[in-house]
Amino acid sequence: MEKPLFSFLFFWFMFFICTFKVTAQQEVDSVNYYYKILLNPQSSSDIPQAINYYTLLKEKNLKANNTYEAIKNLRMIAIGEFEIGNIFDSESATVEALEQVDAAVYSDTLIEARKGLYNQLGRCYRSIHKYNEALKAYGNALQFSKNQNDSLVVLNNRGNIYKDMKRFKFALEQFDIALTKNDVEKNSKAYARLLDNKGVVQAKLGSPEALRNMQKALTIREREKDLMGMYSSYRNLALYYFDNKDTTQALKFSEQAYQVANTLNGIYFIEDALSLSAIMNEDPKMVRYEKITDSIAIEKQLAQNKNAFIKYNVAKERKNTEAAQLENEKQKTWNIFIVAVALVSLVLAIIFYFAIRYKHRQEKITQVYTTEKRISKKVHDEVANDVYRLMAKLQSKPAENDEILDDLESIYNKSRDISKENSSIDVENFQEVVSDLLLGYENKDVSVVRRDANNIDWKTVSDIKKTNLFRVLQELMTNMAKHSEASTVVLNFEQKGKKISVKYADNGKGCKIKSKNGLQNAESRIKAINGTITFESEPNKGFKATIII
């Protein structure tokens, strides 16, 4: 039972593999076919078919994120459009390819593509007589030419631009730069091309070396069987002899050019060769016909270029308008987003404001509750207990008036102290209030030293800060009097800008700092005014506190 199933699966697997191989081979064959007819068309429909094929292939590769292949497709489209005279479509395809190169992840590796595309741009600009832009494009191509052959091609193209501009000395300079490169003779095709073009320019300058360079180029091309090179040499030699009134030699090379064009079997070569023969014809009517035909062709090309330029600019303007509209829409969306964020921020700020107010209100309630609780505990622990003890003493035995008066005075003093601790503070005369506070704790056993207290500008300090600072100092001094057994207390006051620091230190018995050792109230007060307070103490090493508000 397993063998039939295995055979069935194997059959479909082999069918899939074969189908895949056939499809892949067909694609390769199609690419080769359209590449050949694009570079060497045999009929008027070849190039349009090739352009259509590469356009579809480009779209397919772009969808598949195969950027490198899409760039190659665009370059072939640009070549095809150029060959059928659609210069601006060729330029558009070239620019699109360069944009793809710039956007590629590894754009630095696409040097060969950049060189070829800039070279194509140079061809486009040359054909519509934008010579300066063509020179710039070829200059960019030269930057990306990484081998000798590439640089020779670009230098030759730059020389031809100067030749078209009739700036023959500049053209000769470009050809000479190329011809002086190391081992240039080994690159026979490029060497022959440069010699031939140099000879043409030298002929325009009246140099006697012109003919020798052109003949040397022809010899190399015939030896290498370079048919397209041979056609170019025959054509240039025919024109050279025609310009020098040697009709026999001119017709001879014109006929040879025609024979090579037939061998190449390219319609553009044949058309150019026939045009060359017409130039050599001595019949005045044919000469005039050729001149008129050339003039009409030039005017027609210029008209086509102008029309294409207008359409190109219209399309470009439409694209820019659409881009501007899109940018406006983005800006509107961004403005709406900003307004929305601002509104949300405003709402959050309002919520935050009321939350802070609520928090402060709760803190004040808590602080009031804590203060009331502390006062209640102090009254209970100190005053009420003393009153209870005095009552018990009076009930148990008669007491002397002086003794009763002493006890009552003690109770009064404690009540007064509690009242002072929680009474309102005269913040207008804060320096005097602080001095009175500190003097109240000074006696024969305790010395209180104040430093730089008079240098503080208390008018710059808010009332709430002064009130809280006073209560904290009061609490520190009270803790010192009750628990520290200190003999000396030192307080340093210092002001730096808007910040005021108070450093407290005593030489008492000290303690271990814990989170719940009676100092939480002081911490809460300082924190409430956005200040800081730190404590430092160890047993038998005194007590220190630093307050910054």
What count of helical segments does DSSP give?
18
The CATH superfamily of the domain at 425-548 bears the name: Histidine kinase-like ATPase, C-terminal domain
Cα gyration radius (Å): 51 Å
The count of strands amounts to: 5
**Helix percentage:** over 70%
User: What is the terminal separation in angstroms?
Assistant: 93 Å
Strand content: 5-15%
Q: Estimate the mean pLDDT confidence.
A: 82
Provide the low-confidence segments as ranges. 20-24
Annotated CATH topology of the domain at 425-548: Heat Shock Protein 90
Q: Which structural category do the helix and sheet elements fall into?
A: alpha+beta
Q: H/E series, N to C?
A: HHHHHHHHHHHHHHHHEHEEHEE
Widest β-sheet, arrangement of strands = 1-2-3-5-4
Query: Which architecture of the domain at 425-548 does the CATH hierarchy give at level 2?
Result: 2-Layer Sandwich
